Amino acid sequence: MAGQNLHASALLLGDRGVLIAGASGSGKTTLALALIEGFARHGRFARLVSDDQILISARNGRIFCRAPSTIAGLAEIHGVGPRPLDFEPGMIADLLVRLVPAASAQRFQEAGTESLAGCDIPCLQLAAGNAQAAVLAVASWFSAPPFRQSAMHSG
User: Fold this and answer.
1) Residue 132 domain boundaries
2) Can you name the residues that pair with 16 across neighbouring β-strands?
3) Which pTM was predicted?
């Protein structure tokens, strides 16, 4: 099964799939690894699906993601190169995080939507290069520690 190649990283946080898209050098890998580390620190399952490239396709109205076989299980660490780590073979995406220049990122926002592979997905536009703030935004979106479920949205 082929798929559309998207310049993005993908990871599972518990039972939720996150796509992180952005320009080269925007911090996709840094954010993915920071999210994995943060969720694991709170005893929650978190695992990379693919770093830097992901194959996406529509399945039952949702976005299915998997790693290209040539990079499965590798994360490219800036200045060091590709390094192996545990990974999941695929996931359904629940949230798209688009890393944008800081001047374009809004301080407060409701998630918009984007269309990928013919499917709509909630999208947060967050400042590139600020993994610490982005980790908090994603954790709050999923009501993950240190945040709790709120009446505002259920992620």
Assistant:
1) 4-141
2) 13
3) 0.89
Cα–Cα distance list, 130 to 26, 44, 101, 102, 125 (Å):
9, 23, 10, 9, 12
Does a structural domain hold residue 147? Answer: no
Contact indicator for 35, 46 with CB cutoff of 8 Å? yes
- Let me know if residue 154 belongs to a domain: no
Tell me the per-residue pLDDT of 93-128, one tens digit each, with 9 for 90 and over: 999 999 999 888 777 777 789 999 999 999 999 999
Cross-strand pairs, 124: 97
The answer to whether the CB of 123 falls within 8 A of the CB of 111 is: yes
In a domain, 89, yes or no: yes
Q: How far apart are CA 89 and CA 28, in angstroms?
A: 19
Give tens-digit pLDDT for 12-49. 999 999 999 999 989 999 999 999 999 999 899 999 99
